[in-house]
Amino acid sequence: QVQLVESGGGLVQAGGSLRLSCAASGRSFSNYAMAWFRQAPGKEREFVAAISWNSGSTYYADSVKGRFTISRDNAKNPVYLRMNRLKPEDTAVYYCAAEGTPGYSGNYYGFITSYDYWGQGTQVTVSS
């Protein structure tokens, strides 16, 4: 059974930092693009960042560009999200996602439907 498990969420003051991790079991995702999405209460799930299988390409939502960094270590946990200068509006449940077919997401890396595998989410709360 394929599973993605996020960790690293928590409560942090505005301006602080957190690093989220996503661990995979059941298969290797070293050849698959992966991404982070988030969902705040009462809002739709939105794209945060994505990374290609070889880390050659990274993509960010405008709202996090310059503050968040996505990375991966295919030998260990598949993907990380380093979040700096956090703001209260970053408060959300953060989800890790992975393609089901290598290269499927292509230019549609920001679309929920581009990913077949999802974690259960980790809560990030930023206090003002």
Name its key features.
11 strands; 44% strand; four-stranded antiparallel beta sheet; 128 residues; mainly beta; seven-stranded mixed beta sheet
* Mean of all residue-level pLDDT scores: 94
Categorize the overall geometry: globular
Please compute the radius of gyration using only Cα atoms.
13 Å
How helix-rich are the residues, as a percent range? under 10%
Structural class: mainly beta
Helix count equals: 0
Question: What is the makeup of the main sheet?
Answer: 7 strands, mixed
Low-confidence runs (pLDDT<50, min 5 residues)?
none
Through-space gap between termini: 40 Å
How many β strands by DSSP? 11
Instruction: Provide the β-strand percentage band.
Output: 35-45%
Q: What's the order of the H and E elements? A: EEEEEEEEEEE
Report on this model:
With 128 residues, the protein is mostly beta strands. Helix content is 0%, strand content 44%. The protein is built from no helices and eleven strands. Strands 2, 4, 5, 6, 9, 10 and 11 form a seven-stranded mixed sheet that branches. Strands 1-3-8-7 form a four-stranded antiparallel sheet, with no helix packed on it. β5 (46-51) and β6 (58-60) form a beta hairpin. It is globular and about 40 Å long.
Short structural summary:
With 128 residues, this protein is mainly beta.
